[in-house]
């Protein structure tokens, strides 16, 4: 019984760790809202958590780089999202 339970637990842990976590709905809505300020958009269904975090950090960066520089950074990230294989 203990071996079966341990094997089941290991299988659950391994299967859960292999599946990538999707970004939260709140993060995706914040990204959509933030990108609208820069006249940009992205299909949030294809964003990975890493890409969503990268976009979010650019949007909330407090260094006052200016509209043009921030928009350029966002476009670079979004270009990489579009190139990623599905």
Would you tell me the structural class of the helices and strands?
mainly alpha
Mean pLDDT: 80
Give me the count of strands.
0
Please, how many domains?
1
Name the beta content range. under 5%
Radius of gyration: 18 Å
Distance between the termini: 42 Å
Number of helices: 4
Order of helices and strands: HHHH
Helicity level: 55-70%
Biggest sheet architecture: none
Low-confidence stretches: none
Task: Give the overall form.
Answer: globular
Q: Could you describe the 3D structure shown?
A:
It is a single chain. The chain is mainly alpha-helical and 86 residues long. The protein has helices at 2-18, 25-36, 49-60, 67-83. α2 (25-36) crosses α3 (49-60) and α3 (49-60) packs antiparallel against α4 (67-83). The radius of gyration is 18 Å and the shape is globular. It starts with a helix and ends with a helix. The model has no long low-confidence stretch (mean pLDDT 80).
């Amino acid at each position: 019984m203990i071996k079966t339970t341990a094997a089941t637990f290991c299988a659950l842990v391994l299967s859960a760790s292999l599946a990538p976590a999707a970004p939260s709905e709140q993060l995706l809505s914040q990204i959509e809202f933030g990108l609208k300020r820069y006249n940009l958009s992205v299909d949030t269904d294809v964003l990975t958590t890493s890409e969503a975090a990268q976009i979010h950090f650019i949007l909330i960066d407090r260094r006052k780089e200016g509209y043009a520089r921030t928009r350029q950074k966002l476009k670079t990230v979004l270009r990489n999202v579009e190139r990623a294989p599905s």
